[in-house]
Specification:
Helix content is 48%, strand content 0%. With 143 residues, it is mainly alpha-helical.
């Protein structure tokens, strides 16, 4: 019989290793700073929304795309007059867009005040209806 080695079992059979040896991971260096120039800062949800609100308050550009707004104006104009050959100047479309965006922003401000009055933060359709009614804008009550 062969001499016993340290890997032999009682029966004389060799033991099979069930675990694979892996060297330990090196510890991170304490004074090493991660490269922050490539990472974009992450904001928690409330801060992200507030940052977005501040961004849109600073911008003076229009929020609705001009092509989509122009298409909508032409569609409404053709449905009213039933004629296909209506043309608009660029300045006229821009003036219409600025006026409509100002109206929408004012309406949302009023409806948000209605939501705050009812001790809510979330804007609901009933707040928009109430803002319409308070403003006396009865033509848009079909909301």
């Amino acid at each position: 019989m062969a001499p016993k080695s340290s890997n032999d079992n009682r029966d004389g059979r060799r033991r099979r290793s069930s675990a694979v040896y892996r060297p330990p991971k090196p510890l991170p260096k304490r004074h090493e700073e991660p490269n922050r120039t490539t990472e974009t800062p992450r904001y928690k949800p409330p801060n992200r929304y507030l940052k977005e609100i501040r961004h849109y308050q600073k911008t003076e550009s229009l929020l609705i795309p001009a092509t989509s707004f122009g298409r909508l104006v032409r569609e409404v104009a053709t449905s009213i007059t039933r004629s296909r050959d209506i043309r608009f100047q660029g300045k006229a479309l821009k003036a219409l867009q600025e006026a409509s965006e100002a109206y929408i922003v004012g309406l949302f401000e009023d409806s948000y005040l209605c939501a705050l009055h009812s001790k809510r933060v979330t804007l609901m359709a009933k707040d928009l209806r109430l803002a319409y009614r308070i403003r006396g804008d009865m033509s848009s009550m079909g909301l």
